[in-house]
Amino acid sequence: MNMQSPTLPAGETAPDRAKRATRADFQKQDDKAMLRAVRDLTQGLGEARPGVYWPDMLVSTAIGYAAIATAILTGSVWIALIAGLAGSLALYRSLMFIHELTHIHRDALPGFRTGWNLLVGIPLLTPSFMYEGVHTIHHKRTQYGTAEDPEYLPLALMKPWSLPLFVIVALLAPVALLVRFAVLVPLGALIPAVRSLTWQRFSSLSINPDFRRKAPSGDLARRVLWQETGASIWAITLLVSTYWLGWRPLLIALAIVSFTALLNQLRTLVAHLWENEGEPMTVTAQFLDSVNVPPPGVAAEIWAPVGLRYHALHHLMPSMPYHDLPEAHRRLAKELGSGSTYEGANHSGVMTLVWRIAKSTMVTRS
């Protein structure tokens, strides 16, 4: 008699069940052969190339700001909408370089961190300190998927209403950041308790509501000082500008950046399968709980830019520059082949992943 596990969503395909079984198999023990292949087959890759990073970031940023200016200045609603969409996508790509900044060696791209913060991080009120020192916790072998992970929630095991709420709340992020830097930072300079609360609760790009950030130290503390000061001055300037320019320019810019935040939250929703309930996981289990959306589809380059379509592979090689991930994936897929553990992290597209997680939330659990 064919029996289906009560924890599996109805209608789940056989390959999906196989992937679940594989994750269970590697919950306590790694696929050492795959990990050796990852090490051996990616030799010669891994050097961050300034000739890729700088043009990509600069062109994306220029398009984004030009599109915002067009949306603000045009008298046509349709032109404003088209420009707003283009600006949101371009700035989304620019913003995703914050992920690269957390992993590349500090000497790999001279000036890139400072340049990115001046051109993107501070103007969009998302300086790199909000991710540096936070995202690395997500990659720690003993903390991934546990209560200590700032970037993990068992979304696939939560209630169905939690998914749309998780995505839609991102629309409020730009306003929340504006309040953080324009109001809470100046208050924190006067009131230590406000400063402490702001740092612990509102200084990291995290999704775990129980995460509390520890005080910065060393080089990070120095970067926090100038980045936070710059972002605070810029946020106050934006609010003061409404006295001369009115609210229209700021509201249009906030709307465009809100859509960018929405895109990023949707990408976050499908970056993992979110099926771990807090248990420590092996590297292989973490890999299989993460998601690759490899070619031939091109849409993933839009909603998961700067190498994030290879998110599972990134969890095997966190320091691999984004421009080398496609070649690393090609080598591994070719060598390890169909039916391998490596293939278990490859998925076809965003809607398939959203539907998979949504179905999982509809399962009744004791």
- Low-pLDDT stretches: 1-15
Helix amount, in percent? 55-70%
N- to C-terminal distance: 24 Å
Tally of separate domains? 2
**Content-based structural category:** mainly alpha
Strand proportion, as a percent range, falls in under 5%
- Helix count from the secondary structure assignment: 17
Largest sheet: none
Rounded radius of gyration (Å): 21 Å
Mean pLDDT: 90
Total number of strands: 0
Cα shape: globular
N-to-C SSE string, H for helix and E for strand: HHHHHHHHHHHHHHHHH
Q: Layout of helices and strands, plus pairs?
A:
Blueprint: H1 14-25, H2 32-41, H3 50-73, H4 77-95, H5 97-101, H6 112-121, H7 135-138, H8 162-168, H9 173-190, H10 192-202, H11 218-245, H12 248-269, H13 283-288, H14 300-303, H15 311-316, H16 325-336, H17 350-361
Helix pairs in contact: 2-16, 3-4, 3-6, 3-12, 4-12, 8-12, 9-10, 9-11
Describe this structure in words.
- The protein has 366 residues and is mainly α.
- It has two domains: 14-43 and 272-361, no CATH class; 50-269, no CATH class.
- Helices cover 57% and strands 0% of the residues.
- The chain has 17 helices and no strands.
- Helix 9 packs antiparallel against helix 10 (192-202).
- The chain is globular, with a radius of gyration of 21 Å.
- 38% of the residues are buried.
- Mean pLDDT is 90; it is low at 1-15.
